[in-house]
Amino acid sequence: MKNFKRFALMFMFILVLGVLAACGGSDEDTAADESNTEEGTNAEGSEEVSGPIAIDGSSTVFPIMENLTYTYNQEHPDVNVTVNSSGSGGGFKKSTVGEIDLSNASRPIKEEEMATAEENGIQLEELELAYDGLSVVVSQQNDFVDELTIDQLKQIFLESSDATMWSDINPEWPEEEIKIFSPGHDSGTFDYFNEVILEEQPMKEGENTTLSEDDNVLVRGIENDPNAIGFFGYAYYAENEDVLKVLGISEDGNEAVKPNPETIQDGSYTPLSRPLFTYVNVNAYKEKTQVRDFVEYMLNNAGKAAEEVGYVALPEDKYQEQLETAKSWAE
Hints:
The protein is of the alpha/beta class. It is 46% helix and 19% strand.
């Protein structure tokens, strides 16, 4: 009898423990489910985003977008973001026919490009991401040029100019052929330089001119040749200032100014300061949750990304104003 009572007590004790464990497990499972639900939502409380996002366009904007997509993917690994850099014009060729979701640009969209988009039923909307100072650079091996006037830039780059030697620009400079490194014709940087410096006149091309949509190709060419000169976005100079020398630019007899975050933002680096853009396919923004989520993430983090890669952030209220505008596209 004693053994039977002892067995019954042990059985009840085990049963109670089992019930308590089951209750504890239920609470833990509920907490885990709630945690998983919280981790699997975006800012609007919807399910975790996934799917592809296609971005192309300006090589100048590329470092900003590369930074943003990397940090975004840390939070959203199921979103497959591809970023290419075929130039501003190359990006618009794709965005105006609906091939990509975002089109990066270092110049505003042209009227004919917007007309093509409208003909194809594509609504493209502009967002500013940062400020840039288009930088004119030579190699650190160059010990004779520190600054140039706008007129001297025209002498160097214009097809109509007879200047081919550095000594043609300044008799005190070497009798060495000038080697030009320039973004290609699909580049918004080329378009901008062509507009504000060359005034839409043809640039020199030939054996002493290298054109490339890849700014890193231009960097490598200039750094190894003391007689080379070229131009591209400020971030590529900032990343390579140990091998490149940025030149001061003077306009209308004023003191030469070099690009840096202060002169770019306050506009004193003129006429080569400019905004950088991305153009959003509004159809994709409305229809693809991952595109909408990324665009909102982009506007909340573009300033930080711009500064990390060497550009100049917009005022924070400008990003927030654009964010509210973007959200209205989905209404």
